[in-house]
Design goal:
The structure holds two protein chains of two kinds. Helices cover 93% and strands 0% of the residues of chain A. By secondary structure, chain A is an all-alpha fold. Classes of the chains: A mainly alpha, B mainly alpha. Chains A and B meet through helix 1 of A and strand 8, helix 4, helix 5, helix 6 and helix 7 of B.
Chain lengths: 164, 367
């Protein structure tokens, strides 16, 4: 029976000392340990969360960068094409102007040439007229030097008149 | 690594024990020459007595016997008698149970209900005084308490010093256990109310576990069968019972008195269910008490039984048989000690888990 009969003395000491252990452990061991464990767990969770947040932030920044880059590319494309258009326009304008100028010069030259020609022709005409007149004068003078010839000519003229 | 070390220690201890046993036996041989046949029978090795002596409690801590010299640590005896008042003296006054001191003596005789306890002789009758002596188990209790407090307060300081950092050293050895108790026992059984009971659960777990382990250490500060003592398990179970009862909410007591979900004729006119439920309320801590006591005591008894085999063989077939038996006995004891290491943890775990479940039942909300 000795083994299964609880002994009063031991029950007494066990109760007293176990109460003391419970109190001391709770106050000086479990409270700080559990507090620190909780704190560490919280901080780990916090760290994980903020890491997740940082990752999201990173992804957002990256996509932002991508967008800005994309916009810049579009802008550059636009600027380039604008410049090309302007160049094209300037070139074509210049060509047209040059052509118009050339035409004007050409036309002026043609007109001048025409007028030069006309005046030359006129000159020649008057030369020819005066030459023909002097030749005719000399021919007439030669053919009408005698009286008979003058009468003959007068007669032929008369013949013509009659016919008319 | 730890197990190998422990096995080595056990092996070494067995060897020392074996060498001394030769001396003890030679001593017995000498004695038989001078004593009568009756004393020869009494002095013969009695495994039952030896085992019970080791598993039970004693005044003074017997360490070893060299020849006729007993080496034991005297412990204070504190008694209060209704007849002669309060007494405080050392157990060495009894001369190992052979003499009386101021009418006090240690009761003897196999049929004596007070056998092995301090009794006072009043008019030739043995009367048991109120006895709060510091016995072997009490001293071992104090030792373990010092060790537990030292371990956990230093670990708590390590936590304070290394705030927010990873655990280190002894701290990292205990942290998984602490987290195991908190998460897998307290949180699993108690839900969101776990914080209130976690300190108690941690305390009983480590108290039982460390005392179980100390019981496995074969020499001085260890070796007492503290968690295998029914008084100790009684107090532990009582704490669980008191905490359960104090924290019982309306739902718990309703379940007790008017169990829902059972036919009415089990409650009226004969209150069968309430009777069973209220009986269960007391049976639960009783079973806690008996389970821990029986498991740890049985481990000690079987381990000591294997050691006794050495001397039984020695008695039967001489020293050679004793040495031969020792090889097997030591091998079995090593195996048993490893098994006891497992049991030390399992019993601490079971006690804590069941306590947590009872608290969970007591605080469960109606759903």
């Amino acid at each position: 029976m000795g083994l299964v009969t609880p002994d009063f003395g031991l029950i007494f000491w066990m109760t007293v000392s176990f109460l003391a252990v419970l109190f001391l452990l709770k106050k000086y061991a479990w409270k700080p340990i559990l507090k620190m464990l909780k704190q560490r767990e919280d901080s780990i969770e916090e760290a994980l969360k903020s890491a997740e947040k940082a990752k999201d932030e990173m992804a957002r920044l990256k996509s932002d960068n991508e967008k800005i880059l994309q916009e810049a590319r579009v802008e550059r494309e636009k600027l380039l094409s604008d410049a090309r258009d302007v160049k094209e326009k300037i070139l074509s304008d210049a060509k047209e102007e040059a052509k118009a100028e050339a035409d004007k010069i050409l036309r002026a030259a043609k007109a001048q040439i025409e007028s030069e020609k006309l005046s030359a022709i006129n000159e020649i005409k008057s030369q020819v007229v005066s030459l023909s007149v002097s030749i005719a004068e000399k021919v007439l003078k030669k053919s009408l030097e005698t009286d008979s010839k003058q009468i003959e000519y007068a007669n032929s003229l008369l013949k013509d008149i009659k016919l008319n | 690594m730890l197990n190998t070390f422990r096995s080595l220690i056990i092996g070494l201890f067995s060897l020392i024990f074996l060498i001394f046993s030769q001396k003890i036996f030679s001593q017995h041989q000498e004695k038989t020459g001078n004593h009568s046949i009756e004393t020869e029978h009494q002095k013969e090795f009695n495994p039952g007595e030896m085992i019970m002596g080791h598993v039970g409690d004693e005044y003074g801590w017997h360490i070893a016997t060299f020849g006729e010299t007993h080496i034991s640590i005297p412990l204070p005896i504190i008694v209060y008698s209704n007849y002669s008042g309060f007494f405080f003296f050392m157990s060495s006054e009894f001369q190992h149970g052979h003499s009386t001191y101021k009418n006090f003596k240690i009761a003897e005789g196999n049929d004596n209900p007070n056998k092995g306890k301090v009794v006072e002789l009043i008019d030739g009758k043995e009367i048991r005084p109120y006895d709060i002596s510091i016995t072997k188990n009490t001293l071992s209790l104090f030792f373990s308490i010092i060790i537990i407090l030292w371990i956990f307060i230093s670990v708590a300081n390590a936590y304070k010093k290394r705030e927010g950092q990873a655990p280190k050293g002894f701290q990292s050895l205990l942290e998984p256990l602490i987290l195991f108790i908190r998460d897998d026992i307290a949180k699993a059984s108690l839900g969101h109310k776990y914080m209130k009971f976690t300190p108690y659960l941690l305390s009983i777990f480590f108290f039982i576990f460390i005392n179980n382990l100390m019981g496995l250490v074969p020499f001085f500060p260890g070796g007492a069968n503290l968690t295998g003592n029914i008084a100790v398990t009684l107090v532990l179970a009582l704490f669980t019972f008191v905490i359960t009862t104090i924290n019982g909410n309306k739902n718990y007591w309703t379940h007790m008195v008017n169990t829902p979900g059972v036919p009415w004729w089990l409650k009226l006119p004969i209150p069968l269910m309430p009777f069973v439920e209220i009986l269960g309320m007391f049976i639960k801590p009783f079973v806690l008490m008996v389970r821990l006591f029986a498991n740890i005591s049985a481990g000690h008894i079987v381990a000591l039984g294997f050691f006794s085999l050495i001397f039984i063989f020695g008695n039967m077939g001489g020293a050679a048989a004793g040495y031969g038996g020792a090889v097997f006995s030591v091998a079995f004891t090593i195996f048993l000690t490893l098994l006891e290491l497992l049991v030390a943890f399992i019993q601490a775990y079971v006690f804590t888990l069941l306590s947590a479940l009872y608290f969970g039942m007591a605080t469960e909300e109606h759903h």
